[in-house]
Amino acid sequence: MAKLWQKNYTLDSMMEHFTVRRDYINDEELVLSDLIGSAAQAKGLERIGILSHEETKALLSGLDKIAELRKADSFPITVSDEDCHTAIEGFLTEQIGEAGKKIHTGRSRNDQVQTALRIYMREAALKLSSATLSAVSALIELADRNKDVPMPGRTHMQIAMPSSVALWALSFAEELLEETGMLMNLYNVLNQSPLGSAASYGVTLPLDREYTASLMGFSKVQNNVLYANNSRGKFEAFFLDHAEYIALTLSKLAQDLMLFTLPEFGYFSLPRELCTGSSIMPQKKNPDGLELARSRTALIGSCSSRVKNIIKALPSGYNRDFQDTKEPLIEGFRSTEELVLIMAEMIEKLEVHPAALEKACVPELYATDRVMEKVLSGGNFRDSYRNVGLNLGDVEGEDPVAALAKRTSTGTTGNLGIEKDKTWLSDLSASVNSEIERLCNVYRNLVPAISEVVL
Prior knowledge:
The chain is mostly helical.
């Protein structure tokens, strides 16, 4: 099909490559999202009399056919198409005829892309939330199995105070639960429809934006049509920032695991099937996945920075610069989801070595405990601190397991609150799963071939 903007001249081939670049490849990811938006667009046009019932029925059938082809990897998008939106309209026009030429009535490629991206991002938020909660589940299970396994707590990487495997694991679990909650709050921001805003200023047709928004399962319309446009890039950056927070947590977890699985520590062992080897040293079992977790975190952060650098000096209204925010969005999401899933598997298969952990609980670990004992016996903190500090050789060790129970304040080794974390996980999982199920029903009603949340 000719380009959506085609007039009475042919675009220079070098300019075509420069303006399209990899956009048509990135759009492979957006086909199903665009079909949802296009189905709502067709029904919206029928509602105001632009399309007949029969034309709408034919268009919906055509969109369903494209969904089937796309799922079979049989709906190619070429550089001459520019993007999936032209390819979809071209297919509909070829298969149906005149009705295919009508479906773009009242919308710009701008709000068409915006709508597809919004659908894509809300699905990405749900899928990333679900994946992150699987990692949380693995961490909570690890903690539950090792509630009474001591572990040296560290500050400045030096021996500090008594801790436990459970306290360590739950610290990451709660951080990821918090970040998943933040991502689901963002989901509510993403879940608003820009369809009908056109090229930033609306059109003279009496479009029922609320109707099309409800068809797509959006919670509301993004009201101001210029804001709908100006939020492009900003919403992508919001999503990528939240993805980066999750990645940063997992990067710290990866670093801990690399340290604590060293033979010199021996606290944990990684499953060998998640380690790689050396091309020259036959004994090596390398934690490459953990090392790449750190670098992928940097990659994800760079995706967020790329988007913000693209949009930071743009004037209001549509600008072609927005096209270059698609690739970092997709790359950032895919990289984060993959990172979360591999780290979840690492945790699930992590082997804990209680004997090595108990052996690591050397006497100096209890120095602060000795200070607190003196305080409880009537001494003041500062003098007690100095006394113990000047006589560290006199600090004796104790049963490391019994030491865990002495800490009873909320969130400490003797009062972990693991049941609260399980409830937190359960509530968030129910919220995510409920929304996924709701969207599956929305998609099934619009384009039956898209019967699930699929990216």
